[in-house]
Write a structure and sequence with these properties.
Radius of gyration: 14 Å
Shape: elongated
Oligomer: single chain
Distance between the termini: 37 Å
Largest sheet: 7 strands, mixed
Order of helices and strands: EEEEEEEEEEE
Number of helices: 0
Structural class: mainly beta
Strand content: over 45%
Length: 119
């Protein structure tokens, strides 16, 4: 499974960005997919999770009401719509997915895309 993120950019505080994750190299449907982020000097944190069918969506408290996670299983893509961006949202954002075959589940990560929010 390959995951490729795109959409990271430099944006002013209060602005918006849409991150995309394109998945390839597998059959069937990926299980849960997530967006993580890692700011300089900090641990990687879970930002948002979306279930296999897209029904269940969870967010870390700091982004609730501002970020929206979605996925399109027909196009093998996941997006993160980020509104009202704040300087503390500055980080490298990573796409993460779980793919299962039989009873074996494997984690996959993208290379990350940089989001910088200026004050």
């Amino acid at each position: 499974v390959q995951l490729v993120e795109s959409g990271g950019d430099l944006v002013q505080s209060g602005g918006s960005l849409t991150l995309s994750c394109a998945a390839s190299g597998y059959t069937g449907t990926l299980d849960d997919m997530d967006w993580y982020r890692q700011a300089p000097g900090k641990q990687r944190e879970l930002v948002a999770t979306i279930s296999r069918g897209g029904v269940v969506r969870k967010y870390t408290d700091s982004v609730k009401g501002r970020f929206t996670i979605s996925r399109d299983n027909t196009k093998n893509t996941m997006t993160l719509q980020m509104n009202s961006l704040k300087p503390e949202d500055t980080a490298v954002y990573y796409c993460h997915a779980v793919w299962g075959m039989g009873s074996t589940y494997t984690d996959y990560w993208g290379q990350g895309t940089q989001v910088t929010v200026s004050s």
